[in-house]
Amino acid sequence: MSRHGATVDRFIARQALAAVIVAFGPPAGANSLGEAPRTAPPFPRRQIAREFHSGPSSLSGRVVRLIPGGVVVDSAGREIEVSFSRIVDVRKETSVAASAIEVGNDLFINGTDGPPFVTKYVSANVCRIDGVIRAPRSHSG
């Protein structure tokens, strides 16, 4: 066999092997390039929030003051004291500590009504737009 013929044979063998890998996947214990898998350092596990169990009441409003063990929320023109004494979860994009709640946050609070409102779950700044709308766009056609 000529040298050219051997080169062609090796090329065809490589192409056939590539077709088999594409068709059936890489060998067990290898990545898509046929290499042994690399191990990445483990990521710390995120604490998963407990399952949501709705309280009997809810309210929404903006935090106007921080108080020991809770906040004061302006809800429809009324100031309501909110206790964090029985809080289960606070969501502010992810689960955070209750201490992450700040003056100006828009809250949706679920819990038990009463003086004070006792919080079970809090969602902060959900559907809030932090920006300025300069001109509405018309969709009439």
Describe what this molecule looks like in 3D.
- The chain has a 5-stranded mixed β-barrel.
- The chain is built from 1 helix and 7 strands; from the N terminus they run αβββββββ.
- It folds into 2 domains: 1-37; 57-124, Beta Barrel (OB fold (Dihydrolipoamide Acetyltransferase, E2P)).
- With 141 residues, it is an alpha+beta fold.
- Helix content is 16%, strand content 32%.
- It has one helix at 3-24, and strands spanning 57-67, 70-75, 78-83, 89-92, 94-96, 106-112, 117-124.
- It is elongated.
What integer is the average pLDDT? 75
CATH arch. level architecture of the largest domain: Beta Barrel
Percent helix range: 10-25%
H/E order of the elements?
Answer: HEEEEEEE
Strand content: 25-35%
Q: Which parts are unreliable, with pLDDT below 50 for 5 consecutive residues or more?
A: 43-49
* Strand segment tally: 7
Layout: helices, strands, pairs:
Blueprint: H1 3-24, E1 57-67, E2 70-75, E3 78-83, E4 89-92, E5 94-96, E6 106-112, E7 117-124
Parallel strand pairs: 3-7, 4-7
Antiparallel strand pairs: 1-2, 1-6, 2-3, 4-5, 6-7
Please summarize what this structure is.
This protein has 141 residues and is of the alpha+beta class. The protein has 1 helix and 7 strands.
